[in-house]
Amino acid sequence: MGDPALRPAEWDFVAARRRLEAKPKSAGEKLTSIDDAAARVTEGDRVAVGGCLFSRTPLALVREILRARRRGLTLVRNLMCTEGELMMAAGAVERVMTAWMSIGLPWGVSKVMRHYVESGAVALEEWSHLALGLRFRAAAMGVPFLPALTMLGSDLVAVGGMKTIADPYSGETLAAVPALFPDVALLHVHRADRFGNGQIDGYPHMDADIARAAATVLVTTEELITDEETRRHPDRTVIPGFLVDALVHVPFGSFPHECYGLYEADFDHFAEYTASIDARGPEAAVGEYLARHVYGPPTWDDYLELFGGERLARQRAAAKELTG
Amino acid sequence: MNQPFTSAELLAIMGSRQLRDDTTVFAGVGVPLLAAALAQQRHAPKLTMVIEGGIIGPRIKPGRLPISTNEMRAAYRAQMLPGITDTFLFAQRGFLDYGFMGGAQIDQHGNVNTSVLGSDYWKPKVRLPGTGGANDIASLCREVIILTAHEKRRFVARVDFVTSPAWLDGGDSRRRAGLPFGGVSRVVTTLGVFGFDPETRRMRLDALHPGVTREQVREQTGFPLLEAPEINVTEAPSADELAMLRALDPERRFLG
Questions:
Q1: Cβ B67–A137 below 8 Å, yes or no?
Q2: Among A226, A165, A161, which Cα is nearest to A197's?
Q3: What is the CA radius of gyration of chain A?
Q4: Contact at 8 Å (CB) between A1 and A30?
Q5: Mean pLDDT over all residues of chain B?
Q6: Residue A261 has what DSSP assignment?
Q7: Rounded to an integer, what distance in angstroms lies between the CA atom of residue A130 and that of residue A133?
Q8: How many CB atoms lie within 10 A of CB B245?
């Protein structure tokens, strides 16, 4: 335990701490290109993905990691959606750690997940939603575990190998939810300055904890703001710049997933995507999708053009209607 | 049965009647959220809805019902957006009275499976979406109400995998596992309303929906059911309840 040169255990708080101590925590420039940011993800990394399901998913980063043909990744996300399906079909991921995976009730159980998990190509390690949240929080706090009252008695305990502990005060049995220190965090925020100070509107999901838990933090932002603007509303900053390694300015960086207040998820796109999977099966349909949306268009702007300005404007108007 | 309402409408209405005023409820999207919203409009105006995506006190916008527990439709005019982990910690602290749940399989002790079908977790016959927050709701709420279609393939003697613990193996096994609070109090199905024997924690038929017989229930249940000394008949969904419910989902996205 404690050797940061080896890939440490998920809960190895000593190694995780040494890794941070050895790392620059600069208040300097973080702005870079999407391919430079994605290049910081290496073979076999444990990658935590911010947002939740089809909300504030860092899809521009996910796409670029797929374009860089990374392999052997472990993907960690509380609720997984199409980003996980693309990763599975592209052969980028060996293991996913999640509480739930599919797109949503109207589209049924994910056929892509079923295909890759039932065939044994990808291992799905299931934790409860709160347990995953506490795993990130324990890591964000720099401790090896947090006591909790959840997941006890269920068969999920054995899946992830969670241990229990006796409360030293009352003797009650408690869950000892282990910390989870990711190698890399992928996050998408509403606004950030060039030094990486990031602000999120709407539901915060688990992003602030994930940013503190990970060794390397990659962020995309809808809007690039000035240092002065950050300083006018420091109460809104949830990710301090010194823990961010790379920042990329990517408007619509979560599309066709949603970004609170800015654009609603494109449910029509989900329906088209799942209809094509229903018709042609996961491998062929998602393979084509990857060719068209991921490997084909060289830039994110080219990717957005596949949806068209009208679609983007429609989704913006829908978000305004719901949050205005 | 030729009834003037769908199964989803029956479940939403019977579910809504379980909720008392001045309480809080963890509601998932779909029928549970409609049940909570109906209760709030009809008899429980001081009910607070909590959604696991990190949303407290949202309003329901008819025609814009949420598909997931974390999206703008679920957060519409909410009172607070505390984040997912902290939302569940409200439940761990004891602030959540009710939790609604569904599931692919439910057993005679109320345990629910939404993870895998088959005997080997790592080589599943069918991989299901997973727990989401269901395990946490089952562990942490003061009481859990299961809303489900009543079918023999769902009502099994023992679930393949305990995703969400109710009474585990019955008796005091839940307490011994380290779950001193909560547990499933009611199972509301398309055929009736069920509780659990306080000693053995085995499922017990408490009430039948109008026109349903005990035989029908037994046929659709894969384990022997206990029966309450007096089996009641629920009141059929009223015109008033149906009208209010249908106004919440004019697109009939979840009402069938």
A1: no
A2: A226
A3: 19
A4: no
A5: 96
A6: T
A7: 5
A8: 23
- Residue B253 falls within a domain, yes or no? no
Q: What is the pLDDT of residues B8-49, one digit of tens each?
A: 999 999 999 999 999 999 998 899 999 999 999 999 999 999
Q: Which among A106, A258, A322 has the least Cβ separation from residue B76? A: A322
- Burial (CB < 10 A; 0-12, 13-18, 19+), residue A323, is middle
Kind and range of the H or E run holding A14? helix A13-21
First to last CA, chain A: 50
A100 near B CB under 8 A:
yes
Residue B183: domain span: 7-248
- Pairwise CB contact (< 8 Å): A322 & B72: yes
B52 classed as catalytic: yes
b (16+ CB within 10 A) / e for B180-216: eebbbbbbbbbbbbbbbeeeebbbbbbbbbeebeeeb
Q: What is the largest CA-CA distance in chain A?
A: 61
**B132 neighbourhood in chain A, CB within 8 Å:** 79, 99-100, 129
In a domain, B2, yes or no: no
- Distance of alpha carbon B16 from alpha carbon B11, whole angstroms: 8
- Domains plus CATH for chain A? 13-144+179-249 (3.40.1080.10)
When divided into structural domains, chain B yields a total of 1
A297 touches chain B (CB under 8 A): no
Flag the least confident range among A6-10, A81-85, B197-201: A6-10
Q: Which chain B residues have a beta carbon less than 8 Å from that of A261?
A: 72
Print the SS3 string covering B123-183.
CCCEECCCCCCHHHHHHHCCEEEEEECCCCCCEECCCCCCCECCCCCCCCHHHHCCCCCCC
Residues 12-31 of B with CB under 8 A from A: 29-30
Residue A309: both structure tokens together? 């300005």
The interface predicted TM-score (ipTM) is: 0.97
Burial B96-118 (b: 16+ CB within 10 A, else e): bbbbbbbbbbbbbbbbbbbbbbe
- Closest chain A residue to B29 measured between Cα atoms? A105
Window 211-240 of B, Cβ < 8 Å to A: none
pLDDT one-digit tens code per residue, A43-78? 999 999 999 999 999 999 999 999 999 999 999 999
Identify whether B75 is part of a domain: yes
Does residue B82 sit within a domain? yes
Read off the DSSP letter of residue A94: E
Binned at pLDDT 50, 70 and 90, residue B103 comes out as confident
Residues of chain B positioned with their CB less than 8 A from the CB of A263: none
Measure the CA–CA gap between B116 and B109, rounded to whole angstroms.
Answer: 18
DSSP state of B236: P
User: Is the peptide bond preceding residue A256 cis, with omega within 30 degrees of 0?
Assistant: yes
Give me the phi and psi of A105, to 5 degrees please. Answer: -45, -45
Residue type, B38: L
The CATH number for B31's domain is: 3.40.1080.10
Determine, for residues B165 and A154 on separate chains, whether the beta-carbon distance falls below 8 Å: yes
